[in-house]
Structure formats: structure tokens, C-alpha cells
Amino acid sequence: MKKHVVLYKKLSAPLMDRLRDQVEVTLIESLDKGGLAHLRDTLPDAQGLLGASLRLDAELLDLAPRLEAVASVSVGVDNYDIDYLTRRGILLSNTPDVLTETTADTGFALILATARRVVELANMVRAGNWNQNIGALHFGSDVHGKTLGIIGMGRIGEALAQRGHFGFGMPVIYHSQSPKPAVEQRFAAEYRSLPDLLKEADFVCLTLPLTKQTQGLIGAKEFMQMGPETIFINISRGKVVDEAALVQALQQQTIRAAGLDVFEREPLAHDSPLLRLNNVVATPHIGSATHETREAMARCAVDNLLAALAGKRPQNLVNESAWQP
Ligand code: DGY
């Protein structure tokens, strides 16, 4: 008999066909109130789950006694209670690698947009306020040759370093759990303690996952260690930053600008003080959001799920200790 998979993310027709060939599929079209109620109804029978952007906690997963595998269409796994999944022997997989370059592109888009004030000045033109040649009041700052500081030198951090080093001639400094000699060699990158990086970098870029250790890593003290010309970029998770402290640093101009793709709460509240600041470029968590990359992520998640349900080790298994060969 075919196993039962619940999707809470719509897939392309070829991927749907592939799944339906091998498993029974229930699709939850959206995660609104009705969709969530439908999801809860389907959980008692589900052996596989596939989706993203939903907090799957013990309360929800207790409704799914037959669950064998969860395939997340994301690299970040902060939406999952991994200890709980592991205790129950449920295999959790994610989609690393396929989104690395696209997410680094997003990081660089934010670096360029903030430094050159692209959004603010484009809005000025659109509003019909370009009435004379621009002057120093509208100048931005250079990106090429400036110091790129990367916090969290994983795959995405490396892809950012590659762009900065080879594309923009930027000296790269980084902070991570431990020094990475191979990265240092490839990008002439230098390791720094966190306070030293915050002091030295022109661009402070967060690319690290949200964990108990990284939650709130950048707060008032850390913003004070940055300089008035520092541009802060976050493409990791909003909760790595104390958002109130960030707002204060931007309002008081103790840092120059921020390019933010992620927020403490998403979607960002319409009345967030961040949206009243000209020196903020805010995007709606678009890190990996291109047609090509989202399809590659979905394909990867389907591969992971089908492998797990067939009793094989999924390629991108997150909770190794749940795996029983
Ligand atoms: C990820 O894959 O974790 C990205 O942030 C998209 O959600």
C-alpha cells in the first residue's frame, strides 16, 4: 500500500506527478486558518510531511503518530523541534547547497542597495522629486575595496566571500565557531573575534543559522561596537538580532544603514519602525526566492522524502541520530 504524504507547500506539476506515482498525497493549499485546520485533520494518517515556513512543534507532531519523515523545503531548520523528532525516530531533512548561490546573491543585492541607496533614490525619482542634479546629500558609499565582515562562515558565508573577494576586491574578515583555513586561502580571508570584526568591517553580514546559541547574538552592545559608517546586512534569521536595538542604532545613526531580508516576526508588521527609516532596505525573506532555486529546493525535498519513506538514508538528513540503518 502507498504511504501517505501531506504537503503544505504547492509543488510544480512534474514534482507532483513524481510524488503521486509513489505515495498518496494530500495537499494543504495554504497555511491560513482553514488550511491549518485541514492539516491537523490529516496528521493522524500522515507518514511523510513536506513543506516550509510552519513551526512544527511537539503539540502539532503529537497528532501524527505514524509520522516517519519530515522534508523541509529550506536550509534553515529552526522551525522544527529536532530533539523531539529525534526521540521519535522521525527523519528530518533540509535543502542545503541548491540555494547557496542565490542566497548569496540576495546578500550582495542588499549590500549594493544599502551602500548606494538604490531603493531610497529610486523612490525619489518615482515620486517625481528628481528636480535637479543630485549632490552630496544623495551620495552613497563605495562597495569595492571596502572590508566585508561575515559572521557565520558556512556555505552561504563562503559564497558571499567569493563575491566580495573576486568581484569587488574587498578584504574579507570573518567570525565563526572556528577558523577555516581553506576559506582563508581561497579568499585571502582573515579570522576575527566578534568584537574585532564588528569594529573593523564596513559591511557586517549575518549568514549564520538560528540556534539557542545564536539567538540575540547581535544586540545593543554589539551595535555600539560598530562604527557610524557600518552597514549591517542580515540574510540569516531575524531572531539572531535584537530588533529593538537595531532600530535604535539606525535611528541614532550609530550605524549607517541596514539591509534586512529577515525579521524577528514575519511578515514584518506594517507599522514596524524599520519601515519609517530611509537608511533601511527591507525585503520579504527572498533569500532563495527565484524560480530556478525554489524548484531545485522542492526537487531536493521530494528526493529526501521519498528516500526516507523507502527506508533509505536521505541525502540531507539533519538529525543523524534518528537514522537506524
Ligand atoms: C531557508 O531555506 O532557510 C531560507 O531562509 C528560505 O526560507
Automatic annotation (TrEMBL):
InterPro entries: D-isomer_2-hydroxyacid_DH, D-isomer_2_OHA_DH_cat_dom, D-isomer_DH_CS1, D-isomer_DH_NAD-bd, NAD(P)-bd_dom_sf
UniProt name for this protein: Phosphogluconate 2-dehydrogenase
This protein's record includes keyword Oxidoreductase: yes
Pfam families in UniProt: 2-Hacid_dh, 2-Hacid_dh_C
Family: Belongs to the D-isomer specific 2-hydroxyacid dehydrogenase family.
Domain D-isomer specific 2-hydroxyacid dehydrogenase NAD-binding: 108-287
Annotated GO MF terms: glyoxylate reductase (NADPH) activity; hydroxypyruvate reductase [NAD(P)H] activity; NAD binding
Gene3D superfamilies: NAD(P)-binding Rossmann-like Domain
Domain D-isomer specific 2-hydroxyacid dehydrogenase catalytic: 5-319
GO CC annotation terms, alphabetical: cytosol
